[in-house]
Amino acid sequence: MGQTLAEKILSHKVGRPVRAGELVVVEVDQVMVVDSIAGSFFKRLEYLNATPRYPERVSIVIDHVAPAANLEVAKAQKEIREWGKRLGIRVFDVGRGVCHQVLIEEGLAQPGWIVVGSDSHSTTYGAVGAFGTGMGATDIALAAASGRTWLRVPESVKVVFRGRLPKGVTAKDAALEMVRLLTAEGATYMAVEIHLLDGAEGLSRGERMTLANLTVEAGAKAGLVVPSGEILEMYRVPDWFYPDPDAHYVREVEIDLSALTPRVSVPFYVDNVHEVAQVKGKRVDQVFIGTCTNGRIEDLRAAAEVLKGRKVAPWVRLLVIPASSQVLEEAARDGTLLTLLEAGATIGTPGCGPCMGRHMGVLAPGEVCVSTSNRNFRGRMGAPDAEIYLASPRVAAASAVAGYLTTPEELEETHA
Ligand SMILES: CC(C)[C@H](C(=O)O)[C@@H](O)C(=O)O
Ligand code: SF4
């Protein structure tokens, strides 16, 4: 029987054919640590009396609460800088952006690499064919100290996206539909192997990141997008790097992109996904466009396209937080930023922003937020009863203008 992409990558690393279910020890190509976990990471290294074996393979990103929101965080970040210098570790400081976006931009995830991150959305690296996975501080510290980690070779679920997205429908809608079909636990500890066929191979790197990012919301260990399209131009993809046609999958799911409509994930469960049409009219207090899911330049442009010549509803706060300094620069250069500002948006420092409710847009009791992020469980952005509706940047922008949940198409109709 042939091998899945996860089995191929791990076999290549181990130097012999491996199968789902086996425990393997592999060399790690990149260890990523985020600000919120860095303190525990350093404590574990101290406890082990160890330093990173390959400091150049370790990156720390100050992104979750950046700039520091209080004294405690400020002290922790000061320590990160000191430790970074002492150990010779790369530190991406305040303003550089969300860890996953930064690592991809910096070329610190490559096809066939093992990237372990202290952050659950490390599956995002699968967009470029890296086996990216999230781990706790102890495993991350051991990976840094030894240069290796252990993994159970995951079983795989195959998700095939076919066709082209209709106008106004985005990769986020496709990703939400995928989570609905897989369910929040449907791919626990599995690799979600994503195939883009019959036109879907035209999806950009950023769009693939959105897909790989959301796989963890179905419980995935890794989300691997089989390289095609622009990835083949941007990266060196080895020829062994494809799953075999007779590989074994636990489950196979097909999504016809050409038949997709705008989606929204309704609180408090990520897989509670509906057509926007089914929940439209929900009054909105805050709209947040950003995060590792949808804070890229194409996302900001999509929002600006909807917002051009319009104003945000008087009762809505529109927060736009570019996923990285590169994204912010590009948005400044091409005029996207001005369009957003003219519509009434507030622009925040590149990073996670209010995504996990630590700062920069925490929700008060009873408030409703449309967010382009990936999680909407109770209390995620603040008050336990505040509601988060997950949607695409287009739907988020349209909802900011209307002041209630809607699509750009609906907005056109009501204004016509
Ligand atoms: C802080 C970090 C560990 C966390 C994660 O693991 O995902 C955060 O990024 C999140 O999205 O909830
Ligand atoms: S943007 Fe949100 S989901 Fe992504 S790493 Fe930051 S807190 Fe986690």
UniProtKB/TrEMBL annotation:
Q: How is the cofactor bound?
A: Binds 1 [4Fe-4S] cluster per subunit.
The pathway this protein participates in, as annotated, is: Amino-acid biosynthesis; L-leucine biosynthesis; L-leucine from 3-methyl-2-oxobutanoate: step 2/4
Pfam families cross-referenced by the UniProt entry: Aconitase
Enzymatic reactions: (2R,3S)-3-isopropylmalate = (2S)-2-isopropylmalate
Q: Which PROSITE patterns match?
A: ACONITASE_1, ACONITASE_2
Its keywords, alphabetically, are:
4Fe-4S, Amino-acid biosynthesis, Branched-chain amino acid biosynthesis, Iron, Iron-sulfur, Leucine biosynthesis, Lyase, Metal-binding
Which cofactors must be present for this protein to function? [4Fe-4S] cluster
Question: Care to name a GO molecular-function term for this sequence?
Answer: 3-isopropylmalate dehydratase activity
Give every Aconitase/3-isopropylmalate dehydratase large subunit alpha/beta/alpha domain span.
8-403
Sections of the chain in a coiled coil: none
The question of whether Iron is a record keyword is answered with yes
KW Iron-sulfur (keyword) present: yes
Name the domain of life. Bacteria
HAMAP family in UniProt? LeuC_type2
**Assembly:** Heterodimer of LeuC and LeuD.
Family according to the record: Belongs to the aconitase/IPM isomerase family. LeuC type 2 subfamily.
Q: What is this protein called?
A: 3-isopropylmalate dehydratase large subunit
Q: What is this organism's lineage?
A: Bacteria, Thermotogati, Deinococcota, Deinococci, Thermales
